[in-house]
Automatic annotation (TrEMBL):
Signal peptide as annotated in the record: 1-20
Listed name of the protein: Uncharacterized protein
Keyword vocabulary terms for this entry: Signal
Length: 87
């Protein structure tokens, strides 16, 4: 029974890392990024050319000066030319 539980937990943890939201900043400016991941609030700065990987499974991401965006699963939020696309 314990082995089954360990296997189940391992599968769940692995599947969450496969389907997690990424944010990519292809812009020339830095942006303040705020999001809530499973009850933990995050407030980070994303510099030009950088990426935040696997930030959440499903969340609302607030990007300073650009607005709020819903993302889930394997979505990628891309900031480019002062605009945001959720792919």
């Amino acid at each position: 029974m314990v082995k089954k539980n360990i296997l189940l937990v391992s599968i769940l943890l692995f599947s969450n890392s496969i389907f997690a939201v990424d944010i990519v900043n292809k812009d020339k400016s830095s942006y303040r990024i705020q999001y809530d991941d499973a009850g933990t609030k995050h407030d980070e700065v994303l510099n030009p050319g950088k990426k935040l990987s696997s930030i959440c499974g499903e969340c609302t991401v607030r990007i300073s000066g650009l607005g709020s965006f819903q993302a889930a699963g394997s979505d990628k939020i891309v900031i480019q030319n002062g605009e945001v696309k959720v792919e």
